[in-house]
Design goal:
The complex is a heterodimer. Chain A is 70% helix and 0% strand. Chain A is mostly helical. The two termini of chain A are 45 Å apart. Chain B has two domains: 37 residues; 199 residues, MetI-like (MetI-like fold), CATH 1.10.3720. The chains are: A mainly alpha, B mainly alpha.
Chain lengths: 288, 292
């Protein structure tokens, strides 16, 4: 066998070995989710379950109310993604292609927010959300009630502006040739028409990448939802899992694992079909 | 400002379009930062009015043993995972760059941990580390090595979390390196090979320097990310055993949302931010020194 073929085989063997290592936690997660409770605490433990025990999934979905948290997460993730992408696209277009006073200074402002670490804004945002006037029992000064705490709005509104998104879309839009815009304006199109009928279709890949990034972030978000959802009715999947983890005893671990499987399936499915967009989004922010 | 230079309708539309974003940033980012700064000079528990206490919070920070331990753990975690993250992900990117068949499958498998939530990952690894029935001890027992306490052993707890952290983030860094590798013009490599350079020499003298922007980016972003680690601490150890795994953000969380010392926690948050800025600035300085 030639040296080159040997090297190829070694390469594939190495990559497969690494793939197995990377995948092991996932396989482990699946194997526990399909085990019966007694299999779980059996000693010595076997890696694979005897059969496919589906009751864990049924229990955690219905009895532990995971279906409700799933719905919350879907609502928050979808609404937030739509909002973020719309607001970012609207803002990116003028920064990329229009001329107006203070344009560069304002864009610097947007970029500056990227430098702010999240732990600084956590506490004041919490207070802000609690004190929003005329909500959740608050009077006009924001006193007396709990504002938007324990609502799904608290999960959507504080994060509806994405500086990364604005930056990403602006870069994309600025690569569009100026002639397109001059021609459209000569034809008498309003800026709004130019934006919606010309720019948006042309930046579809960037819009998709941003949507996926935002959806992933919203779906997996943990700290902020942990803080503002103290009532189970507004828990997201991540918060619910973390709370169930402390509530479940050893024999219920199989249920918890089934819940974990349920929580990762949607994103992993989107990832399987749209891997390209996940990767492009990351690579693009890297080439900043 | 020569207003006449701008077209009036363009200006109006421009401000209209950027308004939601700018207003949102002002209310939900800039305002909170100022508010946090002010809060750090007060004693505040949300239920009653804030009480101004000047620099008291910052003074207390210096003698706060828990926070000091949190900072120590945080820096250990951040700096300890960095070499593995950089070199392992570069290695993976290098492998993926070898024109393999089925690239999307491998890339997908290597990137998948990044797509799953930290909470989900934490729960799975929590049971992998379980001393009685967990995967790691089961494997160790087959080799005759006794059960390790992992997350319950003050010496092993943080390294266990670090291993998990490296596993989860390999994918992201790998993608960045892959893009950078693919951006290196082949002629540089070929020129070096023609000059008689060995594989290692080509790598260290040609590839590695050309990758330095990517390396720099990876180091800075991972540093900032690992310094802010929280999710897995909350889910897996809650800072234990005996503060062995508490982190800076975890401390901030405890003070603000379990003890309701919002002012003190804000001071902590600013302190941490200064550290982050300092480390980032240091990185930029180092980069300038090594610029090619």
């Amino acid at each position: 066998m030639s040296r080159k073929t040997f090297a190829r085989i070694l390469l594939y063997a190495l990559m497969i070995a690494i793939a197995v290592i990377m995948a092991t936690p996932f396989v482990y997660m699946l194997s526990i989710a399909f085990k019966t409770p007694s299999e779980m605490i059996a000693y010595p433990p076997k890696f694979f379950p005897e059969g496919l025990y589906l009751d864990n999934f049924r229990q955690v979905w219905a009895k532990s109310n995971l279906s409700h948290y799933f719905l919350n997460t879907v609502i928050v993730s979808v609404v937030k993604t739509v909002l973020v992408v719309m607001v970012a696209a609207l803002a990116a277009y003028p920064f990329a292609k229009l001329e107006f006073p203070f344009r560069d200074a304002l864009f610097m402002l947007v970029l500056a927010t990227l430098m702010i670490p999240y732990q600084v804004t956590l506490i004041p945002l919490f207070v802000l959300v609690k004190k929003i006037p005329l909500t959740g029992g608050n009077n006009i000064f924001g006193v007396g009630g709990t504002g938007l705490l324990n609502t799904l709005w608290a999960l959507i509104i504080p994060g509806f502006v994405s500086p990364v998104g604005i930056f990403l879309l602006r870069q994309f839009i600025s690569t569009l040739p100026d002639e397109l815009f001059d021609a459209a304006r000569i034809d008498g199109c309003s800026e709004f028409v130019i934006f919606s009928k010309m720019v948006l279709p042309l930046i579809k890949p960037a819009l998709t990448a941003l949507s996926i990034m935002t959806f992933q972030g919203a779906w997996n978000d943990f700290v902020w939802p942990l803080l503002v959802t103290q009532r189970p009715s507004v828990w997201t999947l991540q918060v619910a899992l973390s709370q169930l983890q402390t509530q479940f005893s050893g024999s219920e671990w199989t249920q918890l694992m089934a819940g974990t499987v349920i929580s990762v399936i949607p994103l992993l499915t989107v990832f399987m079909f749209g891997q390209r967009y996940f990767v492009e989004g990351v690579a693009f922010t890297g080439i900043k | 400002m020569p207003y006449g230079r701008y077209r009036k309708d363009q200006v109006r539309i421009a401000y209209l379009f950027i308004a939601p974003a700018i207003i949102g940033l002002l209310i939900f980012t800039f305002l909170p930062v100022i508010s946090a700064l002010l809060m750090s000079f007060t004693e505040y528990n949300v239920l009653t009015s804030p009480k101004w206490i000047g620099l008291e919070n910052y003074k207390r920070l210096f003698s706060d043993r828990d926070f000091a331990q949190g900072l120590k753990n945080t820096l250990y975690y951040a700096l300890g995972t960095m070499p593995a993250k950089v070199f392992l992900s570069l290695f993976l990117a290098f492998l993926l760059n070898q024109n393999v068949k089925g690239l999307p499958v491998f890339r997908g498998l290597y990137y998948a941990p990044e797509v799953t939530s930290m909470v989900a990952v934490s729960i799975v690894w929590l049971y992998m580390y379980n001393p009685q029935v967990g995967l790691f001890n089961t494997i160790l027992r087959k080799f005759g090595i006794p059960n390790q306490a992992w997350l319950f052993n003050p010496k092993l707890a943080l390294p266990s979390l670090m291993l998990m952290g490296v596993w989860k983030n390999l994918g992201v860094n790998m993608i960045i390196y892959l893009a950078a590798l693919q951006g290196i013009p082949r002629m540089y490599i070929e020129a070096a090979e023609l000059d008689g350079a060995t594989g290692w020499q080509v790598f260290w003298k040609v590839t590695w320097p050309l990758l330095s922007p990517a390396t720099f980016f990876i180091i800075v972003t991972n540093l900032i990310g690992t310094i802010q680690v929280f999710d897995q601490i909350y889910v897996m150890t809650n800072g234990g055993p005996a503060n062995a795994t508490t982190t800076a953000v975890h401390q901030i969380y405890l003070r603000a949302f379990q003890q309701f010392h919002m002012g003190y926690a804000s001071a902590m948050a600013f302190c941490l931010s200064i550290i982050i800025f300092a480390l980032t600035a240091l990185n930029f300085k180092i980069r300038k020194a090594f610029d090619y």
